[in-house]
Write a structure and sequence with these properties.
flat, about 180 residues, single chain, mainly alpha
Length: about 180
């Protein structure tokens, strides 16, 4: 329980809030006609998301709301998946670490495999959506209808309180699972 409602919440709070903020900016500022371009240039949109995701320092927690916002704006689900796979797997720090510890050849193989796998999975996801006749922008956000609003609101409040509480505990130096007596007061 301490891990689930303490350390885990503390670990995901900042990237989650950053991801939500970036998703809000994307939703507000990105053009509505992204659908036309993304559907006409599916593979190119995957390459763009690959190029954006590789150097970006984004974890899975932050990249999920970003990808959802892009799909809402009309990005094909395959391109969003490429971003979801390549972004957290690679970033400037990881690239530098792999090159330093191993060598440039290993780095090229590492990045190539992530790129090829991400693109293949993106193409596969787009094929499944086409085969099933599903428009991704029509189904994104529909899961909220499964859970009633009277559960959504209290759950959001509890999550916000937990994130603020764990952030406060971390800032006061009581973030570890075993706190001293002065921290538990």
């Amino acid at each position: 329980m301490r891990y689930a409602f303490g350390e885990l919440v503390s670990d995901i709070a900042k990237p989650f809030v950053v991801g939500i903020l970036i998703a809000g900016v994307i939703t507000f500022f990105f053009p509505e006609d992204l659908t036309v371009w993304a559907n006409d240039h599916r593979f190119v949109s995957m390459l763009v998301m690959l190029a954006a995701g590789i150097p970006m320092y984004v974890c899975a927690t932050a990249s999920t709301p970003i990808a959802a916002a892009l799909i809402l704006k009309g990005l094909n689900p395959g391109a969003a998946l490429v971003f979801l796979l390549a972004g957290p797997a690679t970033n400037a720090a990881t690239i530098n670490l792999v090159r330093t510890i191993f060598n440039t050849r290993t780095l090229v193989i590492y990045l190539s495999m992530i790129a090829v796998t991400s693109l293949a999975m993106g193409i596969g996801v787009d094929a499944v959506y086409d085969l099933m006749g599903i428009r991704a922008s029509a189904v994104v956000g529909q899961a909220a209808e499964i859970v009633p609003v009277w559960i959504q609101i209290p759950a959001a409040v509890v999550l916000a309180v937990l994130m603020v509480y764990t952030s406060w505990k971390q800032s006061t130096g009581c973030a570890s699972t075993v706190c001293s007596s002065e921290c538990s007061e």
